[in-house]
Amino acid sequence: MKFFRSIYIKVSLLLIANIFLIISIESIVTFYINKNKAIKNIKEYANNMSIRLVNNLSELVWSYSTENIKICILQEMSNEDVLAIVVKNEKNKFMNGFSRNSDWSILNLKSEDEILEKIVFLKITKEITKRNFVIGSVDIYITDYFLNPSLKNLMFKVFGIAMLVSVFMLVSIFFGLKRLILDPIFQIKTSVERFSKNDFTNRCAVKTNDELGDLGESFNVMALSIQEYNKEILRQLYYDKPTNLPNKKKLIIDIEDFKFPIIILINIDDFQEINDFFGNEVADKILIEVAIRLKKILIENSNLYKMIGDEFAILIDKNISENQIETVLKNSIIENIFLEINDKIFLINEQEINIRVTVGVSHNIKIIPSIDEIINKNNLLINADMSLRKAKQLQKHYLVYNEKMELSKEYENNIKWTREIKSAINDNRIVPYFQPIFNNRTNKIEKYECLVRLINKNGQIESPYKFLDVAKKTRLYPLITKIMITKSFNTFISTNFEFSINLSVYDILNEETNYFIKSKLLEYKILAHNVVFEILESDGIENYSKIIEFIDYVKSLGCKIAIDDFGSGYSSFEHILKLNVDYIKIDASMIKNIDTDINSQIITKTIVNFAKELKLKTISEFVHSKEVFNKVYELGVDYSQGYFLGEPMSNPYIIHEGKIKYT
């Protein structure tokens, strides 16, 4: 069927069909015109003959001259179209006549019945008169026996001539259509097919001064427009607009063409702070300037790419042995990166800005074994990113990936705990544990700290240090805070104990969590005077206005505020002066060796004296031994908390006679 899809074939068949139809109609019309003309001639001849015959027979019939009648009839029978002539008397009785036999010889009739009626075409009857008296009649029989073959021959001649003319016309029309219509259509079709296969450089060559020429020109205009549009789309897809560098998508494509790929991933340290401080315009100009400087240090067979955010990548195709790669790259390109970026000032809008970068390197060693032991190039970028993150953790300028880092296990662990946290939230396995806070003067438990725990699917208790950091990075932390507040409130609703709940600065600044806390306090308004919110000093309190607004609100409802991990931050006393707090929880780093560490004793004593001047209460954390407890008691700390006094439990402690017991 594909054969009949061709427009050439369709047009050819259509032309042939039309020419054949025209020939047929022309031949039939010609046949009938000539036939009618011949019949008309025969009728005229027959009519004239009948008049002539009647005139000649008038005297002969009157005189009843039989022989002369025969002679007269035979004279007229010389015309082969005359089939028979019969003369009758006044009584319409047969007198004489002649007819043609089957072999077309002339036969003297004995009666009228002998005439070959089946081939009679025309019969003419005329009266024979004499002196106005009817003396007889004559019947003339005309045949078309010879007419049809001659007409058929004529028709075949006409048909043959028409065929020759038609074939000539057909060929002429076909080649005319081919040149003027079919070839341009085929050229347009070919151009469209190539265009559909993403050959946007293809142009239609049709230049005729008609609609097809207009169509070809319109196609070329469209193709040019789409080509430019496609270039722009590809540029947007594979290039970074500010720096005009290929992006991460382009790197992933290009890496497949590199035989010995090496990726150098470059991250601008603390770029978000630069962006926040100087603004987006300056930050973009810094990225552009970094791109310009990195281009200068490119080596042979290397490309520069702009990655997401504040990262760049250099892709190198170089065969270097594993034990030499760090030395070769350091001498050829890494040192130049630091010389151009770290050691030179950036002058942006007349503002001098110093920036530093951290570098992670991954190369084409076999990372993940496979059946065919083929290098998994897709992992090069992942490994470069892992080495970059590890370099930041270790506070190194650069790090070259090696399998001993086991960074992939760290990533796998993050993924594992993300899933575990989500599952625990959905299955109600995030629970509070309660650690008592002991009054050093009364020997009684007066408070509890609510500490988050995760119960895994095996029923084992997981410590928060395993999952809290992951929760913060995956934005699951607000959900944990909400669960802890709800369950802690429900636990202490019927007690008189103070209980403290840890809040990060992120919890307070998060509008949804902030609103939830305030709503719960209004719901449990009777409980608010027993609630203590511990704010982590180590988080870094910078947005004082919102923090103070929150503190003022919850304190208006009766809540108290404690600064947790006091002493771990760089401006702790400044925080105390700015924040309206009630408790200072001295950081565990100060307490754990306080029985032997003179410096810790001096600092703790300073904190206690400072708190007493401000009429604040102090709580020592990590009281893990009798010696530590005795020392913080001696230094005047008001409350103590630690495993020596009581472990976190799923139910609050009960005190009996100064000794802590639990149920």
Brief descriptors of the model:
48% helix; 19 helices; 663 residues; five-stranded antiparallel beta sheet; disordered C terminus; alpha/beta; TIM Barrel; Beta-Lactamase; Alpha-Beta Plaits; eight-stranded mixed barrel
Summary, kept brief:
The protein is of the alpha/beta class and 663 residues long.
Helix content: 40-55%
Number of domains: 3
The largest sheet, given as strand count, sense and whether it forms a barrel, is:
8 strands, mixed, barrel
Report the CATH architecture of the largest domain. Alpha-Beta Barrel
- How many distinct beta strands? 25
**Within the largest sheet, what's the order of strands?**
15-16-18-19-20-21-22-23
List low-pLDDT spans: 366-375, 654-663
CATH topology of the largest domain: TIM Barrel
Mean of pLDDT: 83
CATH class of the largest domain: Alpha Beta
Would you give an account of this structure?
Helix content is 48%, strand content 21%. It has 663 residues and is α/β, with parallel strands linked by helices. The chain has three domains: 144 residues, Beta-Lactamase; 159 residues, Reverse transcriptase/Diguanylate cyclase domain (Alpha-Beta Plaits, 2-Layer Sandwich), CATH 3.30.70; 233 residues, EAL domain (TIM Barrel), CATH 3.20.20. The chain has an eight-stranded mixed β-barrel with strand order 15-16-18-19-20-21-22-23, surrounded by five helices. The chain has a five-stranded antiparallel β-sheet with strand order 3-2-1-5-4, with helices on one face. Strands 9-10-8-13-14 form a five-stranded mixed β-sheet, with helices on both faces. Helix 1 packs antiparallel against helix 3 and helix 3 runs parallel beside helix 4. The radius of gyration is 58 Å and the shape is elongated. The relative contact order is 0.05.
